[in-house]
Amino acid sequence: LAKLVWQPNGPKLGLGIKHFQNRVLVSRCDPGSLSSTQLAVGDHIIDIDGVPVTDKDVARDLLIKALQEKKEVSAVVERPETMEAKHWTQQALVTQDGDQFSHRERVEVVSSKASFDFKS
């Protein structure tokens, strides 16, 4: 579980997403951005604030709305680990062009080790 909290002087979100076969995938993480410290290209965003997401437009709207209204957002993210999963993700990212999403507000990650553990 990743929790992003808006902070006036924090790094920009810097996140690009696309959808492929009913999955929202991270397609870009800008260097030095908040997303680059917590997410990786190819990560699958499963839900945002408890709402399952399968479309990048829905995911984008949920991210923006939560950051604007609550100043925070949480997401469940799955990172491909097996060679088969990595290959599928790589193919998904090159098969279809998706719009890039990058939020201009700056956010800070607040996480606890018990609930937030990404594997490389």
TrEMBL record:
Superkingdom field: Eukaryota
Which SUPFAM superfamilies does the record cross-reference, listed alphabetically?
PDZ domain-like
Gene3D superfamilies (alphabetical): 2.30.42.10
Fetch the InterPro entries from UniProt.
PDZ (IPR001478), PDZ_sf (IPR036034), T15H9.4-like (IPR040264)
Q: What sequence ranges are listed for the domain PDZ?
A: 1-69
**One matching Pfam family:** PDZ
Q: Which PANTHER family match?
A: PDZ DOMAIN-CONTAINING PROTEIN, SPERM MEIOSIS PDZ DOMAIN CONTAINING PROTEINS-RELATED
Name of the protein this chain belongs to: PDZ domain-containing protein
